[in-house]
Amino acid sequence: MKPEVLAFCSVLALSGLPLACGSDDDGGSSNAGGSAGTGGSGGSDAAVGGSSGSGGDAGDAASDVTTDVPVTAPTPGDIQFSAVSALPQGEQILFNDWSPQPNALYSMKPDGSGETKVFEAYRIWSLGVSHDTQKIAFACGDPAQSAHYGVDIGDAIQHTWLYDVATQAASVLAYGNLNDECHSFTPKDDGILVCRRRDFNQSGGNKTYRVGRLSLTGSLGWLGIGEDSTPTTMELHPQLTDDEQTLFYTLIQISGGSQNRSIVKRALPGGAPEIVKAAASSGVLSPDGTRILYADTSQKSALFSMKLDGSDPIKVASRNGTNAAWSPDGSHVAYLWGETMGCNHIEVVAANGSEADAPKRIRDCGTSFVTELAWIVRP
After folding, report:
1. Whether CATH 2.60.120.560 fits 3-378
2. Helix, strand, or coil here: 77?
3. Among candidate residues 115, 105, 112, 138, the one with its CA nearest the CA of residue 34
4. What is the C-alpha separation between 273 and 117, in angstroms, rounded?
5. What is the pLDDT of residues 314-353, one digit of tens each?
6. The pTM is what?
7. What is the rounded CA–CA span in Å between residue 284 and residue 110?
8. Lower CB density within 10 Å: C or N end of the chain?
9. Distances 228 to 53, 201, 242, 274 between C-alpha atoms, Å
10. DSSP-derived secondary structure letter, 313
């Protein structure tokens, strides 16, 4: 296991909840965290302890800061940001590299050719692309995490940044003692769905994953179940229907040392969570909004798709793929396959299940550590 993976896993281990970092407890592989781009999955399947947050709006971007150390808004220089190349036009797959070097976001064609480094930043973990492809939301680490927050465990602190495709500039959107993942833009591109942990301490405790909507001014409103007095549930992978009336997400219920994952839906605002598919995780809506791609945790996290009511399951990939993304036309699916810890290949299969046992590898992990995908078409 690479040192950087061990460092992040230490955050999970100190939480007091069972997790084999890099694998689901059912035997399927998973990253410790991740997110979605346009057509991408909210990728985090980590188990992290701590109490949940309260409902309502979190207020301004810095309102989650609870450390005694004064924190001002980080600058692009603080995260070692550097624009490298313009985002190419046409159909492409975006991916990151979380390795200690070069800490970058890349683009390539769907066949794996034409790899282009778009920008560099410190340990990019998750990303999401707006539907109009004008903005890229990403989360990355804080090189001065220990000085700013008194927490030196892995990349506990991960702020949300916005990259403007036209100007090739980056600006911070949400910062403080928090860790944002699962980024995906709302259907109207007027907000970003995230799953957030916050209020970390040096022993690894934190308020665990809750899903919310981050405005483009940095305020956060919770979308899930809200307050929970004990850390018995976690919420991940938020996905909104086009009419923004229904939220789908992964609900993890913790009992007796085990974690039971389900894909649930919730009518907005205020509806109660309803289970759509038990033993399922990492749901992501298809581009036409008629199906959900998910990992079946009863089948070693093989990838399936289903209708929105949970019917008509189709095995898309026999691999325990993670961080999956639909192609813009819904005909194919790209996913990460972790052959070894810290080495995720990028593979593509047909969405109709005809290639479930014959994936096409379009990028070998090599020396990089990819943790997120987005599949887009830029006009």
Report:
1. no
2. helix
3. 138
4. 41
5. 999 999 999 999 999 999 999 999 977 888 999 999 999 9
6. 0.86
7. 19
8. C
9. 7, 19, 29, 17
10. -
**8 A C-beta contact, residue 45 and residue 12:** no
In order, the DSSP letters of 321-342 are: -EEEEE-TTSSEEEEEEEEETT
* Whole-angstrom Cα Rg for the chain: 18
Q: Which residues of 211-248 are buried (b: 16+ CB within 10 A; e: fewer)?
A: bbbbbeebbbebbbbeebeebebbbbbbbbeeeeebbb
- Region class of 364: left (phi > 0), else alpha (psi between -120 and 50), else beta: beta
- Structure confidence by residue, pLDDT tens digits, 232-274: 899 999 999 999 999 999 999 998 888 999 999 999 998 999 9
Q: Side chain identity at 290, as an amino acid letter?
A: T
Count Cβ atoms within 10 A of the Cβ of residue 117 and give its class: 0-12 exposed, 13-18 middle, 19 or more buried.
middle
Distances, alpha carbon 181 to alpha carbons 50, 209, 301, 372, in Å: 17, 9, 20, 10
**Single-letter amino acid code for the residue at 316:** V
260 vs 278: CA distance, rounded Å: 8
CA distance 224 to 234: 10
| End-to-end Cα separation, the chain, in angstroms | 40
d(CA 43, CA 31): 7
- Six-digit token pair at 88? 């190419």
306: which 2 tokens? 């289903």
Number of residues in the chain: 379
> What count of other Cβ atoms lies within 10 Å of the Cβ of residue 286?
18
Give the distance from CA 76 to its chain's centroid: 21
